[in-house]
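Justification of computing resources. Each target in the renewal requires a structure prediction run like the one illustrated here; the chain below, 290 residues long, is used simply to show the kind of job we budget for.
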Amino acid sequence: MKLSASELVLNKDKSIYHLNLFPEELAETIITVGDPDRVPLVSQYFDTIEVKKGKREFHSHTGHLGKKRITVISTGIGTDNIDIVLNELDALVNIDFDSRTIKENKTKLDIIRIGTSGAIQSHIPLHSYLMSEYAIGLDSLLHFYDSQHVQHPAIQHAFLSHTNWLKDKSTPYVVQCDKALSKKFSSTQMMSGFTATNVGFYGPQGRILRLPLQDSFMNDKLASFNYQGMQITNLEMETAGIYGLAKLMGHRAISLNCILANRSTGAFSTEPEKATQGLIAYALERIVQI
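Resulting structure tokens:
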């Protein structure tokens, strides 16, 4: 079936609409970062850079580290942006832009998120590295897709009961990381965690400036949730969306977090850039071996 111009949206030069990339400019190993300014902090380690492009908050560098071809791309903040980025990355490798048809032979991408996060368990120290084994999406993104088969309903139902989740909020969804990728990044330096993906930075993460919260105890409920020994460890804004869409599209995804804050103790890093740079170096050492 040919995709219409309103479904597969391309720029005048036939690059994909938001990311502004051509298929040949994308590597099959992709690092996602939230901040556009973090893209060169990753690509500075590359031996060569062949592509540098940017449009809106979506900046991309593609190059080689040794024999490994890698694309690093900024997503901006939130799962609404993840919907754009993941769909357009998949389109670049699995849709023929000339015929506007889906390719018969699909390409599987490796997607590695290198991000920052805040812990909600007091024992998790600042500057620690945490790999999201599971993620619970407190947004609504995955519910717009046929996605029940990638979710974990038993965990979801236990969470709804524990938190007395309001029915007029979007129902949380739980997705697991790619197990094969998780083995590649596991080490004694990397904690394994259960990440909560929030729909916002302030109220949705329990921050109070001028507006009162609907549930001022939500962070306490998140921290005290326990499913068969598994506790929610940290808060951020993209991982569940990445895991859900990657699984639906047949890609592999892993999310690596540098802990810059601890909401339980109130601590925040005084050297966030140095800490994040350490996680970038850690990830790249393992990416070249995939």
